[in-house]
Amino acid sequence: MRMFQQQVPRCLTACLANTKIKTEIPSVLFGRLLQFPLAAIIPAIALLFVPGTSAWAGEQPKLVLQITVDALRGDLPDRFSSALGNGGFRYLMEQGIHYTNANYQHANTETIVGHVSLATGTVPAAHGMVGNVWFDRELGRIAYNIEDSRYHLLTAGADVDKKNEIDPTQRTAKSDGRSPDNILTSTLSDEMAIHFAGKSKIFAVSVKDRGAVSLAGHAGKAFWFSKASGEFVTSNYYYQQYPDWVNDWNARKPAQAYADKAWELTHESSKYLFGNADDREYETDFPGFGRTFPHAYGKADDKYFTTRLTLSPAGDELTLDFAKTLLDKEQLGQDEIPDFLAISFSSTDYVGHIFGASSLEIEDNLVRLDRTLADLFAYIDKKIGLANTLIALSADHGQPEVPGHLHDLGIDKAHYFDTKTLDKAPAISALKKQFGIGEELVKAFFFPYLYLNHEVIRAKGLDHSTVEQAVAAELMKFKGVAYAVSSMALRESNVPDTLLMRTILHNFHPKRSGDIYLVFEPNIFINDFDGLTVASTHGSPWRYDTFVPVIFAGVGLKPARVDRPVTPYDISATLAAYLKIKPPSGSIGIPLAEVLEK
Ligand SMILES: [Zn+2]
Ligand SMILES: [Zn+2]
Asked: In this structure, which residues have their CB less than 5 angstroms from ion ligand 1?
């Protein structure tokens, strides 16, 4: 609202002035023009036009740089600021506009959901990415978010190596093809492509495929890191063959430079908040990586070598190196048409999963990421100028605290939800008694959605809504379950009008969402990654998972720290307003006034 209060009067003045110019000039030209010497009139007309034309062109940034730090909870940059240097987070927080109270308003705070929400400025109910995976009722199987079997990777042998892949969502993909086809609304990058008639250069880079494909949108180009090949790759949705510079970058084998090295602490341990707490029993002892510094990367031919790079700041450093080469070789920001580069840094997420949000590792990872950002900003300043670059940084979600850490502090109500020890028998016998059906009632469960077997319900002539609500009522009996919300109840507006219920509604897409949405109580979550036990897992609608930083910087913005509640959906709306282009098709964001003040 503030934007409209502040902007409307200014806009009205400008618009009225422009209207006046347009209507009066013909009469000037045809009526009194010949009565005045030409030399006196031309400067007068030029003066009238200056604010409308030359100012508009000059105000456009040459580059829009959208940075996503995967799982950077909103408080983390402030919390660890004493260990940070200059030019990275400090540049953003001290020279930029830092929104300190930004929360997502969708329930399933997972990576693809957050990234696509950042790109499209809307919720999963509109953009359709309801989870990292969902049960595709047409295919009759669980589908991976950006999988598209019509396309293939350009690099042979770069597909997910199912034997060694530790990310269970990645393993659900049945083909190596990737595209943005499942993203149902337009992205800011799409809108830039449309507005600037295809002249904007649009790229996205990340270690994670979903971190890049999301932000590149339908019109841009995406590159991501293949753990199987140790290279940055793309699919033939984007290119028929790699640009030469990508081949050259991969041929240099930058990942191999980390072989036989280790992730070591940047500072003396006394400099860190968790300097005396490196070894915690709840941290994940990943093979060969260990729970304490230094964390060895191992030999280049070790099957987990590239995985270890992604579990450390090395993943972000490789992403930076690739992005800098891209900036240079694709000549981003070198003409008057704004270009778009999205970089999603994935390491913070993996480090959080493995060691937790309150660990020496997450702390040093942030110190390293800070150096990575400082390097990136210095490079952009040299090549394009930060004064010509509009930077927007946020995260796709936050992260929870590890229950063990909370226990150490005397906060007992925190634990892992062990799905293996779930005693489903009473629920099944209750449902059998009520409807004459048991286990076959459930088609699939992939947190947070439970998918019922619609065919069985139809064949038995049962009322779908009654069955769904009965199953939800049984799930509510499990210890640790806060809510089991029936989709039918959402459709029928038969749920209390609370913020939490609205986040589940914002997550609901009729073709992709399951029949029941499960919410655990705060600080209770599943930590079993299909066999790999991790320290923490995000994905809840609770504040620690929805809370992210939103920071704008560059282009001479006036520094500010803003505590007013905003949402990450506001980012693409703000970028669109700044560029004076139309917002993405599903946008629900409100342009942020502080960024638009000039
Ligand atoms: Zn993520
Ligand atoms: Zn994650």
From this structure: 70-71, 111, 349, 396
Paired residues of 416 in beta bridges: 525
**C-beta of residue 89 within 8 angstroms of C-beta of residue 77:** yes
pLDDT tens track for 325-358: 999 999 999 999 999 999 999 999 999 999 999 9
Token look-up 């010497």 returns 37
Q: Which ligand is nearest to the CA of 344?
A: 1
Using the mean position of ligand 2's atoms as its centre, give its distance from the Cα of residue 322 in Å.
Answer: 22
Strands 547-554 and 532-533: unpaired
Q: How far apart are CA 486 and CA 473, in angstroms?
A: 9
Q: Is pLDDT above 70 for 56?
A: no
Structure tokens at 199: 């002249």
**C-alpha 273: how far from its chain's center?**
27
Whole-number Å distance, alpha carbon 298 to ligand 1 midpoint, is 26
Q: Known catalytic residues?
A: 111
Fold that domain 423-477+481-520 belongs to in CATH: Gyrase A; domain 2 (3.30.1360)
Task: Give me the phi and psi of 38, to 5 degrees please.
Answer: -55, -40
How far is residue 14's CA from residue 88's CA, in Å, rounded to a whole number?
Answer: 37
Residue 521 phi, psi (nearest 5): -65, 160
Smallest CA-to-CA distance from 176 within 244, 245, 224 is with 224
Instruction: Give the distance from CA 88 to its chain's centroid.
Output: 20
| pLDDT at site 58 | 57
Digit-coded pLDDT (tens) for 564-598: 999 999 999 999 999 999 999 999 999 999 999 97
Predicted model pTM: 0.89
Alpha-helix residue ranges (DSSP H) falling in 313-415? 313-329, 347-355, 360-383, 403-408
Spatial CA neighbour of 200 closest among 93, 90, 340: 340
Distance 26 CA to ligand 1 centre (A): 57
pLDDT at 124 over 60: yes
pLDDT at 162 over 90: no
For residue 556, CA distances in Å to 315, 374, 389, 518, 571 come to: 31, 18, 9, 45, 18
Q: So what's the architecture of 60-150+178-407+540-596 in CATH? A: 3-Layer(aba) Sandwich (3.40)
Q: Token match 């950077």: residue?
A: 72
Q: Domain-by-domain residue ranges, the chain?
A: 2-58, 60-150+178-407+540-596, 423-477+481-520
